[in-house]
Amino acid sequence: MMGILSIVLTLLSCSTLAQTLFTQSAGVKGVLMCGDRPLANAKVKLYDDDSGPDLDDLLAEGTTDSMGQFLLYGHTSEIMTIDPKLNIYHDCDDAMTVSSLR
């Protein structure tokens, strides 16, 4: 009987903890340019930026289209307010020479 009571109390505390988490959403849309040209096929990732030992949560990922446009939307459950962060992975201007950087 005591074992069943312990299991029930554990389940109740877990469900109470789950209710304290809030589903939060974030989205971003934009156009990436490389100089005066659209930046096509660039990888974009939307994260919830977490601090401490908690790893960042990936909310959404995608690539830009031929016009450099992208749209990302995602959600996660957190106790605190989420901090959306956009990472852009590209090779724009990789061909620049050292002399052109001056």
Automatic annotation (TrEMBL):
Its main location: secreted. It is found in: Secreted. One of its GO terms (cellular component) is cell surface. It comes from the Eukaryota. Keywords: Secreted, Signal. Residues 1-18 form the signal peptide. InterPro entries: Transthyretin-like, Transthyretin-like_sf. Belongs to the nematode transthyretin-like family. PANTHER family: TRANSTHYRETIN-LIKE FAMILY PROTEIN-RELATED (PTHR21700), TRANSTHYRETIN-LIKE PROTEIN 33 (PTHR21700:SF117). This is Transthyretin-like family protein. It comes from Ancylostoma caninum. The lineage of its organism: Eukaryota, Metazoa, Ecdysozoa, Nematoda, Chromadorea.
